[in-house]
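dumping this here before i forget
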Amino acid sequence: MTERLVSMLRASDLRVTRQRQLVWEVLQQSHEHLDAEAVHTCAKARDPNISLATVYRTLATLKEVGLVEEHRLGEEHAHFEIVPQTPHYHFTCQACGCIIEFDAPQVMQAVRELSKREDLLIQHVHLFLNGLCSQCQHQQEG
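structure:
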């Protein structure tokens, strides 16, 4: 269990439950963007009593307190990941569905400039790119 989970839940007057810890650990240990069903499958391997409804409620709670982000990533269902310590963005291949994470300091620089120029308080930045990865481009050419 991490300090971040405990402090954010307690700051929101929420209990640190076994289910919340389990869902948090599944997301922390995953190197993919999991949908709720995949989180449930991983969590159920550790705790056979956890229900899909509990996973959905837990993801909603973790999202509400700012620990988890929900992304659509070009699909009809949501994927979840822990809010990163540094900003990053996503490219989704429309053919194979692969997701590539990347950082782009230029995006944050543009956001800071826009915020200053227009006197804006920008709270969230989402940049999702869709297209074809290099492998799918080559397959379509061949």
